[in-house]
Amino acid sequence: MLSVVFLFLFSLCSYGAEVELKESSVVAGRKVLLSEVSEIRGSSLEKELLSGVVITDAPPACREKTLTKETVARAIASYLRENGVSVKEIRVKGPDRIKVISNCQIINSKHIKKLVEELFQRNYPKYEVLSVPDVSVKLPYSNYEEHLYLDSLGSRSARLVYEITVNGKTVKKFWLPIRVEKKVKVVVATRPIPKGVKITPDMVSLKKVVESKARGGTDNLSSVIGATAKKSFLPGDVITDRGIVPNFAVKRNQPVKVVYRDGAIRVELLGIALQDGIVGNIIKVKNPSTGKVLLCRVVGSGVVEFVSH
Prior knowledge:
single chain; 309 residues; alpha+beta; eubacterium ventriosum atcc fold; Thiol Ester Dehydrase, Chain A; Type Iii Antifreeze Protein Isoform Hplc 12; five-stranded antiparallel β-sheet; five-stranded mixed beta barrel; 23 strands; 16% helix; rod-shaped
């Protein structure tokens, strides 16, 4: 290829340097510098002088543009004239066209969602992130900092501020509306539970799930263990009240032993359960000798403890 040689009348200084252009170059800033698209040979003073020559504006992030050798040479000449420097000779060598690509850092939705989930796990563990907007950010910077903080939080939604800074200066900032939901502890299946099977301790555990999936569930393991499955459950399924037949310690219309305690005094009498109940439930029990209805707590199989009239 032919080289382009610029000769200027000597005035202040006399330099001689060679600029060899690259076929392509990735640029990081808003301007394309000569040092980014070429290799500059010469003295240290010549290199320092020519390195900062601005050729043109950089293309938008993740885009490219083509420069000609003539464009580069004219930019060098203009720069030197504007700065009052005359040269003996600068030789521009290399390809006639240079492909310039703007540095591209793509921040996608997957990355942003991960940041959002980490923020909630760290600062708002009672909530689960359900969805994050589909966002893609293109940056012409290799070094930048991300900042994410909460703007508002409701029962089903939140708004976050996502900000990108370069050298302490904000270059991107926008709001992220996200869907969230509170989590509650409920009993879930830890392994398949077929219909008609009696539930054993190794089949269930307490786990936090979002409120909308916890409907009808319970956080009382003892009320589930020993119950019979009315339907089949898969691992992770919430054990609902409608999905089981409880293992009632006391059954409706069946006789029960009523225990009354007052200090050191203990009295036992016969009663009739007016409701089904598992251990811990408060149920109504009728005293057949007086006809009074008592409130009692189920404490064992066929045994209740008097609470009040």
